[in-house]
Design goal:
- The complex is a heterodimer of chains A (181) and B (173).
- Chain A is of the alpha+beta class and 181 residues long.
- Chain A is 46% helix and 23% strand.
- Chain A has five helices and seven strands.
- The longest helix of chain A is centred in the first third of the chain and has 30 residues, at 2-31.
- The radius of gyration of chain A is 27 Å and the shape is elongated.
- Chain A starts with a helix and ends with a strand.
- Chain B has 173 residues and is of the alpha+beta class.
- Helix content of chain B is 40%, strand content 32%.
- The radius of gyration of chain B is 28 Å and the shape is rod-shaped.
- The chains are: A alpha+beta (181), B alpha+beta (173).
């Protein structure tokens, strides 16, 4: 009688274990669902953000009445850097800014007012590829956090894709915007 | 107590515990399904927000074209301004809401609020393209996309001027 009772207890324990395993299995699937909406939104934000940034015209009081687009300012930055040979010397709040600094400040403000405000992080990168070859040189890099020592979006992220800009015979600028949660 | 009674008692106890376990499993499954259903509803609402925003971005009434080639993620201000309601005047509906077109655009957008905002270089401006609020709504799901706003008349040397802005779509459930 004791043996039979023990056998029944073992059976009960096995049932409990099986039910627990089944529930854990179910919970695991529930937690691993792909957030497709999240991925689509990030990709679309990155692509549309980059596309809008490069084509946006600057204010007439900032870089002259010609109102160049930000991609022109970026090309100027790549060709002349922050030197005095720069074609565009823009100003912001009465202070003169070289084209590289102006581009970075303006684009960061726009991305902070949109991407960052909507609860996402970003990482913007422009690189120069010289005609004579070699590795791309970083040109402008910044992210949604204000600490340059802590890069953002190094893990799971979505990219705008590469947006190339020719800089005459000097080479090519590649710009890319990464958006992450 | 004789042996038969002992065995019956044991069997009843085992069955009792077994049914208690089944009850716990049912309660757990019910709660899980309830949470899963709520999450599914939110997911569908989010999908609807993205679908609506995508439809707006591809509307020929406001989409930019460059010599008949459509431009992605771009809204033509010259086309959009006459169609939009002035954001501060709630009594004047937009083109998409007036009586002749209401049913057609309601089929496209359903209960939603569609706003276009310009951030740079001009001072902030806002246009409401569509605003049909659902009665007794309990949840709103906003989705925003960055767009270029093209103005053919404001550029220099015949070139169009592009501004930076965003499209915000709020759907109701």
């Amino acid at each position: 009688m004791n043996q039979r009772g023990q056998t029944e207890m073992i059976g009960l324990v096995v049932i409990v274990i099986l039910i627990t395993l089944g529930l854990l299995f179910l919970a695991q699937f529930a937690l691993n669902e792909k957030p497709e909406k999240k991925i689509f939104t990030r990709k679309e934000l990155a692509y549309s953000g980059m596309s809008a940034i490069l084509k946006t015209s600057v204010r007439p009081e900032e870089c002259g009445t010609f109102q160049p687009q930000l991609e022109i300012i970026l090309q100027d930055c790549a060709l002349y850097g922050d030197s005095s040979n720069s074609i565009y010397q823009c100003q912001r709040e009465g202070q003169i800014e070289e084209s590289c600094a102006f581009f970075q400040t303006t684009v960061k403000e726009l991305l902070d007012a949109t991407v960052k405000k909507w609860g996402k992080k970003y990482w913007f990168e422009s690189r120069i590829i010289r005609v004579q070859g070699g590795n791309p040189d970083p040109l402008i890099t910044f992210s949604s956090n204000n600490n340059p020592d802590i890069p953002e979006c190094q893990g799971e992220r979505d990219s705008s894709g590469l947006f190339p800009l020719r800089i005459g015979d000097a080479g090519l600028i590649e710009s890319e915007l990464y958006v992450c949660d | 107590m004789n042996r038969g009674q002992m065995q019956s008692t044991e069997t009843i106890a085992v069955l009792f515990i077994f049914f208690i376990l089944i009850l716990f499993a049912i309660i757990f499954y019910y709660n899980y399904q309830k949470v899963a259903l709520t999450e599914k509803q939110e997911e569908l609402l989010g999908s609807r927000a993205i679908d609506t925003a995508t439809r707006v971005l591809f509307l020929p009434e406001i989409k930019c074209t460059n010599r008949e080639t459509p431009e992605d993620n771009c809204i033509d201000l010259l086309k959009m301004r006459p169609l939009a309601a002035v954001a501060s005047l709630t009594e004047s509906p937009s083109y998409f809401e007036n009586s002749d077109n209401k049913e057609y655009y309601f089929q496209l957008f359903s209960y939603a609020k569609i706003t276009v905002k310009q951030l740079y270089p001009s001072d902030e401006s806002e246009w409401v393209l569509y605003d049909v609020e659902k009665p007794n709504w309990h949840k709103k799901e906003p989705t925003s996309f960055i767009v270029r706003l093209k103005d053919e008349t404001a550029g220099v040397n015949g070139q169009p001027k592009y501004s930076f802005g965003y499209l915000q779509v709020e759907v109701y459930s």
